[in-house]
Design goal:
alpha+beta; elongated; single chain; 20 strands; 5-stranded antiparallel β-sheet; 425 residues; 6-stranded mixed β-sheet
Length: 425
């Protein structure tokens, strides 16, 4: 042992820098270390079975983890690098990611939780594409790392297994209570939908601010997530997103999403936050022109709503223009607006549009290109012309960036008009 009380791994080519974490009951200690020859930073996990009296079942988890990690090559899963045996215990070396686990005390916004969910689902898609598929079996806040750039990593494959199927009745249940799906808890058939349940519970913990140790408080007497009670602990969320979450944690794996790919596709187009309730603005009909209203609601930053490219009508617009104003009765178009304005209006005017009813869709991007608002509503042409109104209220201005904002308008998923607006503090 060195004078700093860290184990001395220099004979094996590693110099310990500090302790990252430990599980004394399981005899596991994780260290940050430097590989002496290359000077790269690595993680060394030591299983101190000779000191703690931990059983060999836990030691075998390391052997299984190495076996699984050797088969994986994915940027969001830290790579296995090395292993060695010391007098103090068995050690495994992995690639280091400068990221903190979701178990750390941090508050996550719903938009960030969605981003984390999509990232984890991408990792699960990779694992489930393996032949046979890899099932993590211990997906929880501790085992998901997120860095300052919102890069997400999945760690700790000690309980992972290749392929699903039943677990023998005599085997020990492996996983973490509260995050294990019922089929895993009761040694029944494990499927690729099992990890989806664990991810769903993890996301619920993040959204409700529930510590992983208190996950039982989210469940009723049958062990099912109590969504009626849960809603009291959640921020306002879009009902479609809540339905997605509820499907993720359905006790019956057959009623969950079939796999990570299906869950990903169902989530990516969902708005996390409910639309803002805005009073409808009624405009008169002018010169035979039907005026319709499109309401813009706050949307998920950085996640675009998917538009169906298939259209029953072929959009063929002639001239198009967008008028920007803070007064809907004004015909003067603004090029610059301060955030101190309560509301800004975007009037879209299109000509040579085939008569009929369409779906209009607005998008608004801030000064760094992040999506800050979107909304849709039915619109109708008159005399081969169409006018639609979109508006945006400046709220939570600390979270959006000034600069050259971009407004886009779509009909039936096809871009028909766009403009820029300089937004200042």
């Amino acid at each position: 042992m060195t004078t700093n009380n860290f184990p001395d791994f220099t004979n094996y080519g590693y110099q310990v820098t500090r302790e990252l974490g430990h599980n004394r009951a399981g005899g596991r200690v994780t260290y940050l270390a430097t590989e002496i020859n290359s000077q790269r930073t690595v993680v060394v996990k030591q299983f101190q079975f000779s000191r703690t009296g931990a059983n060999w079942t836990e030691y075998n988890a390391y052997e299984k983890e190495i076996k699984v990690l050797k088969t994986l090559d994915y940027p969001n899963i830290p790579r296995y690098l090395d292993s060695f045996q010391t007098s103090g215990g068995f050690c495994m070396v992995q690639e280091y990611k400068n990221a903190s686990s979701l178990a750390d005390s941090r508050t996550w916004k719903p938009q960030q939780v969605k981003q984390i969910a999509l990232s984890v689902l991408e990792i699960l898609k990779y694992l489930q594409s393996r032949i046979p598929p890899v099932i993590h079996r211990d997906l929880k806040p501790d085992n998901i790392l997120v860095d300052d750039q919102m890069n997400v990593y999945l760690v700790d494959f000690g309980f992972a297994r290749s392929g699903g199927g039943e677990v023998t009745v005599s085997s020990v249940v492996k996983g973490t209570l509260g995050f294990m799906p019922p089929e895993q808890m009761f040694n029944r058939e494990i499927t690729i939908a099992s990890d989806l349940y664990s991810l769903g519970v993890t996301l619920i913990c993040l959204l409700s601010g529930t510590n992983a140790n208190d996950v039982g408080s989210l469940m009723d007497e049958t062990g099912r997530i109590n969504f009626q009670q849960l809603k009291k602990r959640l921020p306002p969320l879009n009902s479609a997103f809540l339905n997605w979450l509820e499907k993720m944690v359905n006790p019956n794996y057959k009623d969950r999403y079939e796999n990570a790919e299906t869950a990903f596709r169902a989530l990516v187009s969902l708005e996390v936050l409910p639309p803002w309730e805005m009073p409808k603005w009624v405009f008169p009909t002018v010169a035979g022109l039907t005026v319709s209203t499109v309401i813009v609601g706050i949307a998920v930053t950085g996640v675009l709503k998917l538009l169906n490219p298939a259209s029953e009508k072929q959009i063929s617009a002639g001239n198009s223009s967008v008028t920007i104003t803070t007064n809907p009765e004004s015909s003067e178009s603004l090029s610059q607006v301060p955030m101190s304005e309560k509301r800004v209006y975007f009037s879209v005017n299109l000509s040579k549009i085939k008569p009929g009813e369409y779906t209009g869709f607005c998008q608004l991007f801030d000064g760094v290109g992040a999506l800050v608002a979107m909304g849709e509503a039915p619109v109708k042409t008159a005399d081969n012309r169409l006018q639609a109104w979109c508006w945006y209220d400046f709220k939570n201005t600390e979270e959006v960036q000034p600069g050259d904002w971009k407004f886009k308008f779509y009909l039936q998923g096809e871009s028909v008009a766009e403009t820029s607006l300089n937004v200042t503090r």
